[in-house]
Amino acid sequence: MGRILDKVSLDRLGDKELRVSLLCPYCKSTRITLAGDPTTSGWDGIDCPKCGAHILLDSMSLVVIKDPVPATRA
Question: Which residues pair with 47 in a beta bridge?
Answer without folding.
Answer: 54
